[in-house]
Amino acid sequence: MEKILIIEDNKDVNQMLKETLVNDGYEVHSSYDGMSGLKELKLNQYDMLLLDIMLPYLSGDQILRELRTFSDIPVIILSAKDMVSTKIDLLKLGADDYITKPFDLGEVSARVSTHLRRSHLHKITNPILIYKDLVLDMNLKTVIVNGILLDLTAKEYQIMELLMSNQDKLFSKINIYESIWNEEYLGDDNAVKTHMSNLRTKLKKANGENEYIETVWGLGYRLCKK
């Protein structure tokens, strides 16, 4: 499920947008000022940002400028400003689209879908995932750590791709088993535990200075926070 952040200080507008996008099947989170919105972008991974310009504490253009130093997710600007010069400036800063208030919720929904589809296609044509010094190539099905090509089994590679494609997500053993083995989980977690142990051993052998996969006891596995 694609994850969208809305940074909009008008609570009614924020809620209307959220309800529309949740009904479209997205996971949606809201921030109501610039500082908390930027913090959320730095702490969690999102697939798209809907961004107001006039925000408390930190303006939308400041957020956009900072965001583009660490993320290339699609950004749709929502603003009451209808000046061509403003639109041009924000597009040059890295915005992907600009919608003037008041707007039609159906149009916002359509533009969100279009930009997420383009972003997805871009990822398909550029299938390189990077985490710390780990590089995964989805075309070649290879994982390189610290410049060393890992000798992984098919299941180990699939686990690594699952984690790296969802770098902020926690996966239970059930999630992993049913995603990788494509079978119903019947309570035996030895398969997941064994493959995870072998995978960690190979990662540690390639670079013992870094930690890559962490266990959240009683919940599952995820990539370590950077």
UniProtKB/TrEMBL annotation:
Keywords: DNA-binding, Phosphoprotein, Transcription, Transcription regulation, Two-component regulatory system. It comes from the Bacteria. GO terms for biological process: regulation of DNA-templated transcription. The modification 4-aspartylphosphate is found at residue 52. One of its GO terms (molecular function) is transcription cis-regulatory region binding. It holds the Pfam family Trans_reg_C. May play the central regulatory role in sporulation. It may be an element of the effector pathway responsible for the activation of sporulation genes in response to nutritional stress. Spo0A may act in concert with spo0H (a sigma factor) to control the expression of some genes that are critical to the sporulation process. This is Stage 0 sporulation protein A homolog.
